[in-house]
Amino acid sequence: MAAEGVEDRRRVPMVHVCAGIPARPRTTAGGNRRMLDTATSFRLSEVIGALSHALDLTEGQPVGHSQRSCMIGMELGARLGLPGEVLRDLFYAILLKDAGCSSSAARMCELFATDDRALKRDFAFVDWTSTADFVRYAARNVAPGQSAFSRAGSLLRALRGIAREADDLNNARCDRGARIVAMLGFPPAASEAVRALDEHWDGSGRPDGLVGDAIPLISRIACLSQTAEIFMSADGPRAALDVVRERRGRWFDPEISDLFLAIGPDDPLWTRLAGDSVAEALRDLEPRDGIAMADEEGLDRVAEAFASVIDTKSPYTARHSTGVATYAVAIGAEMGFDALRLRSLRRAGLLHDIGKLGVSNLILDKQGKLTDEEFREVRNHPLYTHQILSRMDAFADIAEAAASHHERIDGRGYHRGIGGDRLGTEARILAVADVYEALTADRPYRGPMPRETALGILWKDAGTAFDPECVAALQVASAELDGQV
Questions:
Q1: Which domain holds residue 318?
Q2: How many distinct structural domains can be found in the chain?
Q3: Rounded CA gap, 358 and 364, in Å?
């Protein structure tokens, strides 16, 4: 059984663009709400920028990688004299460039028998169009901790697997990323740019082997920008300039390369990139004509899109976030929540596991019992959820509940061990919905548990782990939802 089912065995709860929206409720840790004094909307750039930190975690990159890449790309776009509408597409395409990143995590982890985040982090420095460079990368990363003989066998299997599956893995990542960008309502140019992110000027890239000007301009800028940021963050501006100079005319458009190389090592850009106020600096770079504002429906789409990113990370949790959100809303409705409160609860359900993007698939997909060290890492994912969601005003009101879905009312849950009056109603609902979805969902390693059996498990721990009122509401609501989730 994979790690997602560990909580089942241990009985630890697993737990668009417009303005002018109605006032939204804010939820405190105790579940009380206060209405905003005025109608508000949120800059979409701030929402996407903050959530891009979750994509950075999945890629094994330092937090802020996508935002810093966007700063480089916008500098190049300005030097190219791109019009405002193209700059807007460039801005969001780079922030969302890794939207499909979770789709390959599980399989790469399986092929290389190692932490997918470390694997991706090292891969970012490799010229994977060179067979020799790729083989050295594979040998360096495959099956750490095994004997030399075992690693040799693992290396051979990994290389054979990549030879067979590289195109499928890359296509899945590119296509999924493009779909998520389109799902968020961005123009086709933005989604096409994300799909073509790994195309190279000389035709050696993927997924389609496009050559030269056949590659969308935004993709050409984004490809250079993300590579330059990775080398800069690791070894400074000169390393970024060196890699662009070395890959000019192969990976990168020569004209765009020359513009980047004209940015000297003492240019103010590097100071801004190295500063602590990347989000503020990025805000100033967003094209002023037509700044995108997210209304309530827009925020719903963002939550739905990132739920898809979350659930794609592991084959064992397909549609888990959507299921948890559905059960949570059903429980809340049974308990008398109004429409505004149900909307916030749904978002919390969709995003409650966003912190799992920072946990290795080596742990998430592990068959069998986790070690204490592995379980400690799993226990950190609600903390990551809180850190990501609390970064933005748009989702700050759900951060507390979403990050508390593994807490118990007796205080023996995680990640903070809070309970009693400190545990809000929304958090209690999410704890019940999370475990019920995990128990009743169809998983590759087992079939779905019958409704009554799952409810029996929840009732057994009612009063200690779970709020009895929430379990009772689920019992009523789940009868109507049976077979629909």
A1: 3-17+29-41+296-481
A2: 2
A3: 11
**Which whole number is the average pLDDT over 51-60?**
94
CB-CB contact of 404 with 414 (8 Å): no
d(CA 432, CA 474): 8
Q: Helices 393-402 and 381-389 sit at what angle, rounded to 10 degrees? A: 160
pLDDT over 90 (residue 14): no
Residue 369 annotated to the active site: no
| CATH number of the domain enclosing 412 | 1.10.3210.10
In order of 29, 54, 199, 287, the CA distances from 91 in angstroms are 35, 18, 19, 8
3-state secondary structure of 446: strand
pLDDT at 25 over 70: no
Instruction: Point out which residues pair with 446 in neighbouring strands.
Output: 443
**Alpha-carbon torsion (99, 104, 108, 114), positive or negative:** positive
What pLDDT, in 10s, does the model give residues 90-132? 999 999 999 999 999 999 999 999 999 999 999 999 999 999 9
181 Cβ partners below 8 Å, 6+ apart?
A: 92, 93, 96, 99, 190, 191, 194
- For 56, 229, 482, the CA distances from 191, given in Å and listed in that order, are 19, 21, 36
Q: Residue 291 falls within a domain, yes or no?
A: no
Closest CA to 342 of 398, 414, 302, 304: 398
The two tokens of residue 302 are 């963002």
Query: 341 and 244, same structural domain?
Result: no
Active-site position among 97, 313, 356, 366 = 356
Say which residues have a Cβ less than 8 Å from residue 2's Cβ, sequence separation at least 6: 314, 316, 364, 365, 366, 367, 443, 444, 445
Residue-averaged pLDDT of the chain:
89
pLDDT tens for 238-262 read 999 999 999 999 999 999 999 999 9
Instruction: Identify the burial level of 356 via C-beta atoms within 10 angstroms of its C-beta, where 0-12 means exposed, 13-18 middle and 19 or more buried.
Output: buried
Out of 285, 313, 343, pick the residue that ends a domain. Answer: 285
pLDDT-derived band at 278 (thresholds 50, 70, 90) equals: confident
pLDDT for position 482: 67
The answer to whether the CB of 337 falls within 8 A of the CB of 473 is: no
CB 185 within 8 A of CB 302: no
Alpha-carbon distance 406 to 389, whole Å? 16
